[in-house]
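During the no-cost extension, the postdoctoral fellow (Dr. R.K.) reprocessed legacy sequence entries with the updated structure-token encoder. One reprocessed record is reproduced below for audit purposes.
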Amino acid sequence: MSKVREGVAELLAQTLRDGMTLAVGGFGLSGIPRDLIEAVRDSGVKDLTVVSNNMGVDGKGLGLLLENRQVSRVLASYVGENKEFARQYLEGELEVEFTPQGTLAERLRAGGAGIPAFYTATGVGTPVAEGKPTAEFDGRTYLQERGIVADVALVHAWRGDTDGNLVYRRTSRNFNPVCAASGRITFAEVEEIVAPGDLDPDHIVTPGVYVQHVVQYSGAPKEIEQRTVRPRPEGAAENEGATA
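Re-encoded structure tokens follow.
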């Protein structure tokens, strides 16, 4: 049965409720499920816990949910691009759990794999370890971290089939796969939806068993939070051609 849905805004609004935990894919503004985030904003749901590598930037990505005061708690590894996030955090309006980036990815992966907890050396002896159990293995202290299972996961994929199998493109294959696996219900916005069998099985990253709903991406322009390019020196292009 096809998992492709029409009217995803209405479906998402019916699925969401106040106080839910959302796992959201992306890294900066790369690979974010833009359409789905906007649908969450429009639903008006409140008191969300958001698990994501970062919280977008002001006015874009998950920054939209912050500005609309829909988020009460954040689990993230990096949040330095968002001034509104900083303001809410410093003024005590937002609860934040900072997690090392690799640990956050593994917590999501573990949750998706049915692993309730694991041990890592990352964070031992730092504020990250406060209140968490530790154990010694082979003479070294390790910190216990809990797997994350989200009520709803929102991800963006390059290609996907109607059964929900997903393929990601380049840097979009960052937190999207682990977020997709961690959700009890996963919505995937997909740039190109194809028929079953049109994806090379060796290229599938997220099997369709993890995905309940597939929606067509609107094609809205993808944005970059910071451009770091600079003009080429005069004559650089000609020189490159001469030595190629």
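The chain has a mean pLDDT of 93. DSSP finds seven helices and eleven strands in the chain. The remaining legacy entries will be reprocessed before the final report is submitted.
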